[in-house]
Write a structure and sequence with these properties.
Helix 2 packs parallel to helix 4 and helix 3 packs antiparallel against helix 4. This protein folds into two domains: 153 residues, no CATH class; 76 residues, no CATH class. The longest helix is centred in the N-terminal third of the chain and has 33 residues. The radius of gyration is 22 Å and the shape is elongated. 84% of the residues lie in helices and 0% in strands. It contains 14 helices and no strands. It starts with a helix and ends with a helix. The relative contact order is 0.12. It is an all-alpha fold.
């Protein structure tokens, strides 16, 4: 069955649940969703560097993984608290038609957000997934929802600092002293001159950076990132 059809079925199911449970319950879920979105990235930014260093995983993918794990945890905790507070403020279950209709739309929208987050997390690891599960890779390639998520991924901003570092490297080429430092390091020189990197930096496309083989090498090399940070400090003097 096509992945998009499964997603449409999920939207229908969540809409039906929203119609049955009503707006108050669905609104508490949305409070949880907003809290998860706001908290997941700071949590990942705080924990990812130490975890990446300990495990040897690429920092960007470690950050994506932590975001994907922390989101449902934050969602469940905040939803429980919000539901308790809302039920205390508005006791009794609302079962009138406006409440049910509102719950229907909130439930369907919630399903869309959950699907978007799940697809973004899966697509962050699309390459190994396609390697070990070719059918899953083919399903993602045939999915309109997956194509939309590639262009508007939730996790595109997990590596903004890396994107900033690449932009700083490109700017260093205009500084004679910094340009010489870049020329002295073959890895940095090759990276700055990479056409795909230049195009991704111009567009500010973090997902394209993460798909670039040379960038993947950089993200897996903490020492190279330290070199860039050192050059940034020198250029700021």
């Amino acid at each position: 069955m096509n992945l998009d059809l499964w997603l449409l079925a999920a939207l229908g199911l969540f809409a039906a649940i929203g119609f049955y449970t009503g707006a108050i319950q669905q609104f508490s879920h949305w409070i949880g969703i907003v809290a998860a979105y706001l908290c997941a990235k700071p949590i990942a930014a705080l924990l990812a560097p130490a975890l990446a260093q300990r495990t040897g995983w690429p920092p960007a993918l470690t950050s994506v993984g932590l975001s994907a794990v922390s989101m449902p945890v934050v969602f469940m905790v905040v939803t429980f608290i919000a539901s308790w507070i809302l039920n205390a403020i508005i006791p009794g279950k609302q079962r009138n038609m406006p409440d049910r209709i509102t719950g229907l739309f909130l439930g369907a929208a919630k399903a869309g957000v959950i699907a978007w987050v799940a697809l973004a997390a899966v697509l962050a690891f699309e390459e190994p997934l396609a390697k070990y599960l070719p059918a899953a890779g083919a399903a993602l390639n045939a999915s309109s929802a997956a194509a939309f998520t590639r262009k508007h991924s939730l996790f595109d901003s997990v590596a903004p600092s890396v994107l900033d570092k690449f932009r700083a490297l490109a700017a260093m080429r205009d500084d004679p002293q910094m340009a010489q430092a870049l020329l002295n390091d073959p890895a940095l020189r090759a990276m700055v001159n990479d056409p795909a990197l230049k195009q991704a930096m111009e567009k500010g496309d973090a997902s394209a950076l993460l798909e670039n083989p040379e960038i993947k090498k950089l993200l897996a090399d903490p020492e190279l990132l330290k070199k860039i940070e050192s050059l940034e400090k020198d250029s700021g003097r």
